[in-house]
Amino acid sequence: MKNTEKMICLVDGEHYLPVTKAAVDLFDNxxxxxxxxxxxxxxxxxxxxxxxxxxxxxxxIKVHFGDDPHEIPYDLIVExxxxxxxxxxxxxxxxxxxxxxxxxxxxxxxxxxxxxYHGPDFTFDPLTEYDVMEKPSLKILGTGKRIGKTAVSAFxxxxxxxxxxxxxxxxxGRGGPAEPEVVRGDEIEITPEFLMEQSNKGVHAAxxxxxxxxxxxxxxxxxxxxxxxxxxxxxxxxxxxxxKIANQLEGKFIIFEGSGAAIPPIKTNKNILLIGAxxxxxxxxNFFGPFRISLGDLIIITMCxxxxxxxxxxxxxxxxxxxxxxxATVISTVFRPKPLGDIKNKKVLFATTxxxxxxxxLVSHLEKxxxxxVVGTTPHLSNRPLLQKDIAKYIDNVDVMLxxxxxxxxxxxxxxxxxAGLEVVYCDNIPIAIxxxxxxxxxxxxxLVDEAIDDFENTKK
Length: 461
Fold this sequence. Notes:
By secondary structure, the chain is α/β, with parallel strands linked by helices.
């Protein structure tokens, strides 16, 4: 037998009151639904009284009004969800009271409370969060793909490992394994030849958990996922199984790494959110950008430099974040490549997923800091045919293939380079705060880990 759902209905004053009452009564007469409250969200055309008591009497259910009938009472909606311990919010309003932007803002508020937001032809469900962790944990999520989640994950993991917290990374990806795959990055030597062996066996050896193992030298677990909802949920993933494996292994602190804009479906103690400064402001400020921002305890804005983002855009993103989530620590950063091997005095072909527009900055950094000569670059790690063309163009004029461990880095970049007799060196990307006005990134990560551990211990009590 289905349990009774406590419903809050959102109504406006553009509907004639008897029509609104008929709709609410329809829900209230369904056996498994109990309409516990109504929230008036605006509109005055057919509103004959703005007296809450009179309106409640006419509706037969308590109606809650905000301070201004012309403004959407977002905070009041959240307040009523908590007051009545509601299970669902049903929107019975319409244009002109709500437009798309306002509806998405309501959706973000409702989903942040962990309950569904429904309307006549839409349903937004809260994130799936499996409550399975037996160890302290955090998740790393992002507002999109190619904004540096794995690079930040590797950086954070190394910092956590250096402090002796014993991290384990559980990553999900679109090319992940059918069954969670354990990679002992703390025990095995991950060479280009080793990764080629894995690739020849049918393993996606450039998957995020392999990159984490290579860059951080810690225990990692690889999972798969398919599909990504507007708010970040996935259609299919075996990450819950990966989390249970992490519970059984020796890792003491577990890091769950998202994929694209998809969010790890595991309940964790704290969250790190990444925002790409190269993304449109529209997507950060609207739709489910605010929802993702609300999830972050530490928010790292990446790619904060010209030509990907102006100083004005970076500042605007920071202000948006602070308005939505004033409690979060916010750090604006850039990425700089760091070879994992010696490339001094060598001629290099650099393969990256970074956009073409930032190529000159990265090349200059490599040549000045590591004493190499970058003969050519390719931004096509995620496009195999174009990558092969670029490799063929430069392969006779270089000593080293320097490549990020992404996309076709193994089955094309590593394979073709080894067959041509080139040395292959993998490349990390290090997040660096854009100036000294921001909190220290490493210290902020460790502080968040300590808070996660405290939260885990307190929850256990």
